[in-house]
Amino acid sequence: MASQVTNYKCPSCTGPLHFDGESGKLKCDYCGNMYEVATIEALYAEKDSAAEVAEAPSWKLEMANAIWSEEEKATLRSYSCPSCGAELIFDVNTAATSCAYCGNPTIVPGQLGGALKPNLVIPFKYDKKAALDSLKNFYKNKRFLPKRFSMENHLEEIKGIYVPFWLFDGHSHGKMQFHGEIVTSQVSGEVKITTTDHYEIFREGTLDFEKIPVDASTKMPDTHMEAIEPYDYSGLVPYSNAYLPGYYADKYDVLSDDCATRAEERIRESTKDALTATVSGYTSTAPAGSEIQLQHGEVYYALFPVWLLNTKWNNETFTFAMNGQTGKFIGNLPVDWSKFISWMAYISVPLIGIMALVTKFL
Questions:
Q1: Domains of the chain: total
Q2: pTM score
Q3: The domain containing residue 48 runs over which residues?
């Protein structure tokens, strides 16, 4: 990593800039002036390196802005967590006090390299205050939440991180066969006659898919990432370093080729669902065979915004995540079993009394 770095500075007072999700602009920490992303980009514009991309996936990787330039490498830092192995990228103004994934306070700086530059990004819309408010609201009315947990779980350590995704374009051609039945009944005198007609049903069609998302980080729990979806793709913009100040950005550690299987599964299932939805008017139907052919398209490297907090309680890790664009919040909480048992005892006493009275008058 170069010892001299170039920061995003305010053109008015040279103070540090950070991306403000509410306004969608860069804001100066000192004078408060705000600037369009394109304006600051123009001040730091440089032609990207024409170096070769090391990865050559079977899907066609979108090459625009695929390589970090030398100037960009000088403005960013790469940090590796010795605990969980996460390798995070952020600008020099972002405090590196602990890992965004595991909370380990020791993060070792390293050289930025060997990674593609993102093509697209969804900028943060919700700030840290909104994330903290959502977390506090998440605790409310949780009857069995241990009191000490809510007091000692390091709320201020919640971090904004751009999670890496591969976005796959594709085309499918599907054929499906179904067995259908139409059951009719009629009554003749005291006899009920039921007739079952059998049908062989065929469906065929094509579908185009754009930007099927697949999480490209092994550190982000897939269940949490899926739970805070979907993202609004109308917010996708070309990647710029100007969106990074104040946030972490995880480097992908799963290649696009290795994520392609998951994308293909989603395309196949979506194609089957679309063809199945065209079959109607039968008493019952059952699939009898399918053939789905795929044609690969472009692959884009994108970053999606997430507010993340990992905290430990009684040697167990609890993860909270919030969609940085939509505000959707999820997480898992511990249970104070002594409170639960006391509550069960409290409600069981009057129930036993009521049952005794009912039994007495039976």
A1: 1
A2: 0.67
A3: 17-182+194-341
